[in-house]
Specification:
Elements: E1 15-21, H1 26-36, E2 44-50, E3 55-61, H2 64-67, H3 70-74, E4 80-86, E5 101-105, E6 108-118, H4 121-130, H5 141-150, H6 156-164, E7 169-177, E8 181-185, E9 194-198, E10 206-210, H7 214-219, E11 222-226, E12 231-236, E13 239-244, E14 253-254, H8 256-261, E15 267-268, E16 271-272, H9 273-287, E17 294-297, H10 303-313, E18 321-323, H11 341-346, E19 347-349, H12 351-354, E20 358-363, H13 370-381, E21 386-391, H14 413-416, H15 419-426, E22 430-433, H16 436-442, E23 450-451, H17 453-456, H18 462-477
Helix pairs in contact: 4-5, 5-6, 9-10, 9-16
Bound molecules: iron/sulfur cluster.
Iron/sulfur cluster binds near residues 190, 256, 453 and 454.
């Protein structure tokens, strides 16, 4: 059985969350929302629903469509639902870490689902355990429920506020109580969380929340705006209330959502992702032109940037790498090893488009460099005369501590090699990355409101900067 990195050395997806309030088919809408968010995590998925009294939860390892069959959804009654699709960034890949987490505590029954990474979770957990808390999972999300249970505040909303103020790092959270939904975003706004509305012909509109707006498109909901960083939105029998629970902080929206994670048909942090990616390609073409015949994307992540590059350079855009969308988690490998088998399973070149051509290959990142090398070889073996690699972001030199599963610094090729060394390693004729200034322009970041730490090593929170320095010191000394 392959390990989870065999097909690609990409940075891995994180998690997707969704919430529905006020719809008779809440579980089905949550299921469809998660289906649209499947790209954000494929290890496990779960839905909790409530009919105003009891919370029902189903979660399992696997893909959304495999877990939530018609009989399973029938056992999730109620007009409120929250959902989660997971790729583990903290905690092991096991079912007990699948979300939502649901508990009965002194504030009633609550369930929670989380996208992000709580950077002070280990310290909070140690404190809670010293005070008698017993944890069932290794995920950082469970810490939040214990903080709520331990709060001296009387109401759930006040206890939540109390808990959220103790957290550091990245969190877009959806909570389900017996009669209400509460959603919140961390004060720096690392991860997205959109808010929408679903009109009904027979009653009041339903309120919907999701990591990305592509979930709204599938269920026919209208995107209204984002849950603001540091904001808590409560939807219950008395209506919708929005409040700031935390003081204003400098924003640190994850730029990698626009570079790679989010779907191009989503609006993330109020900006269409496709627009950002095409702009990255346009600027890359201006900064790093090459005398070539065609522009080829590494699908699907390089598609939009390649389109921008081709438009700006005037070179034809050719889909000369075909992606197999149906690659499962397991496969039967032939007993005699085939070179670069994992990548061949996922991508196949169109020889007639590549033969004799000088090719500009556009991708969104080089992480370890091994996958890029396999793709360059594949294009060359299909007859390309030259292969010029262009990357639509700056070199990835530092790991993420805010919910993106990146390898250690020692495994990031750009942290340990010059661009010329990387070019040689991936066997390309030339290699260029987008500059930081152009990345910033591509996401229209005029007010310096994004996190770029994986390209700069400069983390937007003190706790992480210290942690990072400690780890680097330990490594250097070991
Ligand atoms: S370090 Fe990189 S991946 Fe992590 S939040 Fe910042 S920009 Fe996003």
């Amino acid at each position: 059985m392959p390990d989870k990195n065999i097909f690609s050395d990409k940075l891995h997806e994180e998690c997707g969350v969704a919430a529905i309030y006020g719809h008779s088919e809440a579980s089905k809408l949550a299921y469809l929302s998660l289906y649209a968010l499947q790209h954000r995590g494929q290890e496990s998925a779960g839905i909790s629903t409530s009919d105003g009294g009891t919370i029902h939860t189903t979660k399992a390892m696997g893909h959304v469509a495999d877990i939530f069959t018609v009989p399973v959804l029938k056992n999730l009654p109620g007009y409120m639902a929250i959902g989660h699709t997971r790729y583990s960034t903290t905690g092991d890949t096991v079912e007990r870490n699948a979300q939502p987490f649901s508990v009965q505590c002194n504030k009633g029954r609550i369930a929670v689902a989380h996208n992000g990474n709580i950077t002070n979770a280990a310290a909070l957990r140690a404190d809670l355990e010293a005070n008698g808390a017993i944890f069932q999972a290794s995920s950082d999300t469970e810490v939040i429920l214990h903080l709520v249970a331990h709060s001296r505040e009387k109401t759930l909303a006040a206890a939540l506020r109390d808990a959220l103020l103790q957290l550091e790092g990245a969190f877009s959270l959806v909570f389900l109580a017996e009669d209400r939904i509460i959603v919140a975003r961390d004060p720096q706004g690392f991860r997205p969380l959109a808010m929408g509305q679903l009109e009904s012909s027979s009653g009041p509109a339903a309120h919907v929340f999701a990591s990305e707006t592509c979930a709204f498109d599938l269920i026919n909901a209208v995107y209204l705006n984002d849950v603001q960083p540091g904001e808590m939105v409560i939807v219950g029998p008395e209506g919708v209330s929005r409040e700031r629970y935390a003081p204003q902080k400098k924003l640190s929206q994850c730029v990698f959502e626009h570079v790679y994670f989010s779907r191009p048909d989503s609006i993330v942090f109020g900006r269409p992702v496709q627009e950002s990616r095409e702009a990255m390609g346009v600027m890359l073409a201006r900064e790093a032109p090459a005398a070539a015949d065609i522009v080829v994307p590494v699908p699907d992540s390089g598609n939009a940037a390649a389109l921008g590059y081709a438009g700006e350079s005037g070179l034809p855009y050719k889909q000369a790498l075909i992606r197999n969308h149906y690659v499962g988690r397991t496969f039967i490998e032939p007993s005699q090893a085939i070179r670069d088998f994992g990548v061949k399973l996922k991508l196949n070149p169109v020889r007639s488009l590549l033969e004799g051509k000088s090719v500009i290959l556009v991708d969104d990142s080089i992480v370890r460099g091994t996958t890029s090398r396999k793709i360059v070889r594949m294009v060359r073996n299909a007859g390309a005369r030259e292969v010029h690699m262009r990357i639509s972001c700056p070199p990835t030199i530092s790991p993420c501590f805010y919910g993106v599963d990146t390898p250690n610094k020692s495994e990031l090729i750009a942290a340990n090699s010059t661009i010329e060394e990387i070019r040689k390693f991936i066997e390309a004729d030339s290699l260029a990355y987008l500059s930081m200034g152009s990345l910033q322009k591509s996401v229209a970041d005029v007010k310096d409101e994004f996190c770029y730490a994986c390209y700069t090593g400069d983390y937007p929170s003190d706790f992480v900067n210290i942690e990072h320095l400690v780890r680097a010191g330990k490594k250097a000394g070991s």
